Structure formats: C-alpha cells, structure tokens
Amino acid sequence: MTAARLDHTHPEGSISGRSVELTTLADAVADRHRLVMVEGEAGVGKTRLLRELLRHPGTTAHTVLEAHCLPVQATHPYGAIVEMFAGAVDELRAVGSALPPITGALAPLLPELRDLLPEHEPALSPSVARHQVLRAVTAVLELLDQPLVVLDNLQWADEETLDLVRFLALSPRDTVTVVLLCRGDEINANELVEAYRGRGHTITRISLAPLTVPGVAEFLRESGVCAAPEFAAELHHRSAGLPLVVEELVRELADHSPTAAGLDEIGVPTRVRDAVVERLTRLGRPATAVCRAVAVFGHPAGEADIAALSGLSDRGMAAALEVALRARMLHETARGHYDLRHPLAARAVYEAIPGPRRREMHLRAIKRLIGSARPGLMQLAHHYRHADELDRWVECVLAAAQEAADSGVPVAGMRILENALDDAELPISAKEAIALRLSREMLQGIATPDTIDRLRTVVRDWPLPRDVGAEIRMNLGLVLVNQVGQVTAGQREIERALTDLPSRRMVRARGMATLALPQVGFVPVATNLRWLAQAEQACAGTTDTEAIAAMRANRLTVRMQIADPGAWRVIDLLPPAPAAPGLRRQLGRTHLNMADAAVWNGHFGPARHHLDAAAELVDDRSAPYLSSLGAGTELRLLAATGPWDGLAEKADRLVAAVGQMGYLAADALLVLGWLQTSRSRTSDALRTLQAAADAAPGHVPIVVTAHAGRAAILSARGQTTAARAAAEAGVDLVRQKDNWVWAAELAPVATEVFLQSGRAREAGTLLTEFRRGIQGRDAPLAAAADLVCAALLAQHRGGHAEAMALFAEAAERYGALPHRRAAARATELAGLCAADAGDLGTAVRDLRTAEAEFSALTATTDALRCRKALRRHDPGRPTRGRRGYGNALSPREKAIAKFAASGLTNREIAEKLTLSRRTVECHVANVMRKLDVSSRTSLGAVLD
Predict the structure, then answer these.
(1) pLDDT tens string 659-704
(2) Could you give the 3-state DSSP secondary structure of residue 184?
(3) Could you tell me which residue ranges the HTH luxR-type domain spans (predicted)?
C-alpha cells in the first residue's frame, strides 16, 4: 500500500538518463536496505527520481510515509514528522487498536488523530518529550506493513527531524527502510551514514551526476523535440546537464525553435531563476558577493578578479569562495579560476543585482582589466557597455574588429560589429563608422542574409554622408555579386555607388573591376572589357600595393575567363607568396580565379597547380569565402579527372558548410547532378542541376552547363521537346554573352538534341557559331567538343567512317586533358560508328575500352549502356550465362538493398559481403533504378 500523495507538477514518463540509478534505488528498497541516501546538487533530479521510485512496481507492497523539508528559516518542530503521518491517516487508523501507550506522545502533533491515540501524560521536560516523540514514531513504524520512510530535501530539515533519522537507526525491525534525498554539501551526510553503519545496517548511497550530452539527447527525444543533433550539446552547455534546467528550457521551447537562437529568445525560465535566487539568498552576504562578482566579470575569474569586484578582503573572499563552491553555486574551471554553475545561473545572478551596483562593479572590472598585462578588447567593450561608458565601448568594438581582421578571422570581426549595430544604445555618431567597417569586413568573410539585410536598411534609411553611403552601397553590391548570386541587383548597387564616388578612385576601381568580370551577369564580353579599361584607368598612378595586386587579379581573371592565349605569359610572372596579409589574400584570389577559369577551359593540370598555390595563401579562417570557392572548383576538377571515390560526400559537405549562402554551393550541386546522372538517378539529377542554376542565376558558365546536363537527361528519356527547350536556353545565354568557350559541355548535347528533333540546319548553324567563337582561344575542352559536334553531324549525314575518326580524335583530346568521362563517351560513340560502318573489331575494342573506363569511374548508367551495345555487336560475346532478372532484384541486389535501407554505408556493405566498394555502388545504383526510388532512405518502405 502507498500512503504518499504524489506531486504531478511535471509530466510523467520514463526518467531520461537515470535508468541505472532508478534500478539501483528500487533494488535497494526491495532488498530492505535500512538506509538509502540519494545525493546531488540542486536541480540534478533527486525528486524526479523519487517520483519514479514511488511509481515502480517494487514499491507497491510498502507503506510509504513521505515528507518534504521546506527552505524556511523558522520551521515548526517535527514538521516533517507531522507531514509524514498526515499523509498516512488511513494506515494509522487500520492499526489503531494495536497502538502502544507511547504513541500518545504524538497527539499534540496530530490533533486529527487524537481520538485514535492512547492517553498520554505530559513529559516532565522538553528533552524527555522529544525522546518520547521519537520512540512513538518508531513504535508506529513497527506496526505498519513494510514501512518506507522518505524524506526529501533533508538539507532543510529541522533538528528534530534529523534526530528522528538518527533514532531510526536504533529500530530493531529489518523491514523499515529510510530513503533520504539531500544535497550532500549542505548537511553532514557522512555522520548519518556512520550512525547506520555502526548499527550493522545495509546502506546504499547513490550520487546523481548531471546528465551527459547523450542523456540530454534522450530527454529531447522523449519530450518529442525534433532538433539537429548538435542541439543536445548546446542545451547541455547552457544547462550544465542539470535536469531541472533542461526540463524548463524544453518546456519553454514550445513557442520557440529548437536552436541556439531559440534558447537566446527564452532567456532564463522563471523556475530556474527562482531556484538560483533562492540558493543565493541562503549563502550569506560574502558568498553572494563572490557569486555576483563572477557574474559581472562575465567569464571564469581568478581570485584577484573576484576580490577586486566584490570588495571583500583576501581572507573574507577566500572563506566566501569556499562557501559558494561547497554549495555548488560556483565551480572551478581551471586552477585558480571560477565560474557559475551554468550560463543560465550566471544570467540569473547578474539580473538579480541592483542596477547601480552592477554599474559600479563593471567600472571595477574595467579598472582591473586595464591594470592587467594585456586586456581583452571585447572584455573591455562588454564592461564599458554595461557601465554606460558608450564612447569607450565603441572605441573597443572598432579596435576588436580590427584585431580580428589582423588575426585573419574576419567572420569574428563581423559578428562583433553586427552585435554593436543591433544595440539600441549605439550612439548616432558611431553608427556610421560601425556600418562602414562592417561593409568592408564582409568582403573577406561570408556575409549572411542577416548581414546583408542590415546593410540594406543602412543605405536605405540612415542619413549618411554621400561618400560613406556610396561605399557601403558599393560593398553591398560586391557581396551580392560575388557571394549571394544576386548579380543584377548587385551590379545595380555598384553602378549607383559609382555616381556618388567621384573622388574615391580606388573604391570606384574595385566596383568597375567587378563589373568587368565576364563570368557574372549577362552583358556581352565587350561591355565587360570596357569596364576593365575604366578600372585600370582609375588605378593609374596608384602606389597602393594591395590595390595594384587586386587589379592584377581582375585583369588576369578577365583574360582567363575568355581564354585569352596571352594570359599565360602574365600568369608566369606572378610573384611568390608575400608576407603582408592583404597581399597574400589578393594573390590567393588570383590563383583561385585562374584555377576556376582553367577548369572551365580544360587546362586541368594548371588548374591543380593554381589550387595548390592558393591553398598555401588562403585558409578557412582568414577568407572563408575564397576557401569555399576553391573547394567548389576542386570538385569540378575531380569530376573531370577523377577519382570519384568520396566525391559525392565532399560535395554534400560543401553544400552543408556554406549554409544559407547557396551561391557558394553551385559548383557542388553541379557535380552532384553529374554524379546522379551517371548513376541512374536521373530524377534527382534534374532537380539538382536546376538547383545549381537557381543557386547562381547570374553565373553564366554554371547556368549554361546546368542546361546542358538537363538537356542530356531529357533527351535520353525521349522527352525531345523539353530537351530542346533546355538546350536552346543554354545556347541563347551563350549567344547573349558571346563567350563560346563556356559552351564546351553544351555544344555536343545541343547538337545531338537538335539532330534528334529533326533540326539539322540549327545543329549546323550552332557548330559554325561555336567554331567561330572559340577560334583563337586557348580552350582545349571546347576544341575537343568542336570535334564531337562535327562527328555528330557527319554521323547524321551517314558518314560513319568520318564520324568514327572525329570521335576518336575527340577521345584522344579529352584523354590528354584528362577528362575521363568525356573521353570514354567519345570512345563509345566511335565504337558505335565503327559498328555502323561494319568494322565490328574496332567497334568491340572501343566499346570495351569505354565500358571499362565508365566502370572504373563508377558511372554505372554509362557502363550499362556500353554492355548492351556489346551484346548487340560482339559476335564472340556469350549470349547465355547467368540468369537475367530484368527489373526484378537479383539475390545479391536484395541483400545489398536491405543493408542500404538499414543505414549502412557502401564501405560497410562491402566489408560485410567481401566485395569492392565500387561493386557495391553499382549494385546500389541498379537497385534504386529498378525500384524507382531517389534516396536510400526510401528503400525501407519499398522493400517492406
């Protein structure tokens, strides 16, 4: 039977991260251990564990007498005893006739049971009365069925209740079990344990630690919170793993997103704040002053820091620090440094400090930091801000942003400036300087949509000096063009800024140089070249070495993007790595632009050289934007040259890394689309290629190449009209731009699509335009594509021998680059022409060569197409063999499909089945094609 009235304040359910402790506690009660002590700091979940114990099937046979000690200074003597028996009135009445005379001593405490309790003479003295009450309680317990005495929050117990706990150790009955829940740091728990151990009783002691990150993740799952995996770690950091804090934050998340930003919006939940303030008030003034000092300091503080802010003497501070540590309000983070238990506790303590006192303590912190060897600028800025010293705050903010830039961490500087710009107390006189600095810093970091929206508001709504507003607008336009992909909007901002910057030559030159880049925007190349000439004129005579390096980078970029053969002579004169960070960044940008253009043009060897050179000059911290561009270029290079092992995973990582700045993911999406096409995932490929074009709508070579990929897929599906529309869209864009070297992927596809749809004249016109457009250009990829286009036209006219020779020459050109998939495709087409010409020996040789290369690349769709052609044209190829399964899954495919559906990677499946990874990749691609699913996660439902 259970006499306790359970508190249902919190939702019922399994106890996250405490299953081991619950089992230990339930087993101890079932085995009738005399004393079970559950210890842990405030909020660690002792009371929750008790609730779960009282719901446990193993406690149903016990008579539970439960009491909660209260945190009040003046408690009624025997308060816990009164609560304990008041909840067990029915049980006491059931044994009423057997109550011995000594139990009458309880009558003054329990008037509601006066009619039940025997008559009792008043004690001769208070000490005798106290002893009689303790004997009476023991006598009652001996009459109850398996009594289980539970005392929660024993650290707040009155002395009479503690006497009862000690007295129960004397009870001769083995069926009495005492469960104590307490903060072991606030009572002498060891003394109580020894009292029971000295009487030979069995003791179980459970110490509850905060939840681990997996424990917090389990709590989130059981609470139905769907969040990213890293959210559990963030929640653990903010709560220190204390279940009370975790639970309150999760409760508040009902109206907020389960993200770090959502937690910021919540602030300190009321129940957590009340718990922290309650503990603070019980520490005493010196320990409270120590906790307040740490909260104001804002990060782990040393003893000297705490003394300076608290105003305590060294001796008084040391004693107060010990009290705060023992109460677990503070914890030691490193030798001699202390911090509040968790960030929410720090905030609750800080907000409880009266405003004038807070400002005074911040001024003390400033004095303390300035007196240190090297004060942190952001620390000083924090204290100046909260001491209302706003001018000094702004000085520190600008200095900290500069320090971040000088240290090669522009993103950190951007966050500092953005936080200042969002502060409602930012002086009007400082807004201009902060906004201008932010617009400059975002050119090196990766500007988020929030950053861009802030600066758009600045140039639209703020009354700024003309030249300042124009420079911010210029920098905003540069970011829109280079990072966001909003080319038209960005170019419009740049052109508007140019009209307001008549005297700022170098700023004007930077904008003109961006308008000069052929790769972005839809104006003809001739217009880009005119902008380049104006930019160089604006730079004439400058002695600014970084500006000179920036102009050289843009000049070379323009020449490489139009495949100017003379560009190489200038590239060969590029200087070695300079020491100055700005010059290193400009040289790194030069090498990255060279690599990017070299890949589009087909100079794969030089592209690798420039990527390696850029890697020595640019890193993720100092120039994350440039690093992301370099990663995208490398993906396109690997897609052409191989190997493809892990290429999809690398592309996925880049897409995830650039986050909201989708423009920087365009290269990766393009590569993923190619890989999906080659692995029979054509529906996915159509979507991914469209996503690449949508991510970078103003990046001409990406959009043109995405059109080419979509046209090829649609043509292979027999959707001729849609394929022709995609091809024509790409051709129209190249014509508008008048830079035909970017049609290297498109021209062969468009030619084939036009021929299939009965538009041979358009195909011929396209070849003429393409050939004229690349004439005199150093673009080997386009030159090889020219041969493929000519071969397709010859094949269409019936000139199979001519087409075979042209395809073979194209394959040789592609192979020399090397562009492995293009070379294999040209070899395949040469083999098909040989078969049409009756040269079956050459046909079989070429088809076998192409099939082997496609298989080596794991281009399963292409390899399968070659195998089908070989079955038609190879007279020596066996026509019988293993059973064919058509669109049904073979036994091997079924086994691999089940493993893939369970979440295993290709590598793990290969290890289980003793197969090569490439073989598994081929099988997985075939499975997905046969089952018509677009992702591995869909396999489970189809297989079931």
Answers:
(1) 767 778 999 999 999 999 998 889 999 999 999 999 988 899 999 9
(2) coil
(3) 882-944
For the stretch 133-146, pLDDT in tens is 889 888 888 888 88
Q: What residues are paired with 814 via a beta bridge? A: none
> What stretches of 521-644 show up as alpha helix (H) in DSSP?
525-539, 545-561, 567-571, 581-601, 604-615, 624-641
Selection from 517, 468, 477, 522 nearest residue 495 by Cα: 477
Coil, helix or strand at residue 181: strand
Sign for the CA dihedral angle at 298, 303, 309, 315 comes to: positive
SS3 302: strand
Distance between CA atoms of residues 801 and 803, nearest Å: 5
Distances in Å between the Cα of 845 and the Cα atoms of 78, 352, 805, 812, 931 are 99, 83, 14, 15, 33
Beta bridge partners of 463: none
pLDDT tens track for 124-172: 788 888 889 889 888 888 888 888 899 988 888 888 888 888 888 887 6
- pLDDT one-digit tens code per residue, 586-638: 888 889 999 999 999 999 999 999 999 988 887 766 667 788 889 999 999 99
- Amino acid at residue number 894: K
Q: Which residue has the tokens 């897929």?
A: 713
Altogether, the residues listed in the chain come to a count of: 944
Per-residue tokens: 777 = 């250009």
Tell me the domain boundaries of the chain. 19-207, 213-267, 651-873, 891-943
Arch. (CATH architecture) of 891-943: Orthogonal Bundle (1.10)
Sign of CA dihedral 295, 298, 301, 304: negative
The phi, psi pair for 147, rounded to 5°, reads -65, 135
Task: HSE, CB side, 13 Å, CA atoms: give it for residue 279.
Answer: 29
In terms of DSSP bridges, do strands 330-334 and 147-152 run parallel, antiparallel, or are they unpaired?
A: unpaired
Q: What are phi and psi of 804, to 5 degrees?
A: -60, -45
User: Is 36 in a helix, a strand, or coil?
Assistant: strand
pLDDT of 880: 46
From residue 374, alpha-carbon distances to 365, 371, 912, 933 in Å are 14, 8, 57, 60
- CA dist 106 and 310 (Å) reads 49
Note the CATH architecture for domain 651-873: Alpha Horseshoe (1.25)
CATH 3.40.50.300 fits 19-207, yes or no: yes
> Can you tell me which residue has the tokens 């503990």?
279
Eight-class DSSP state of 259: S
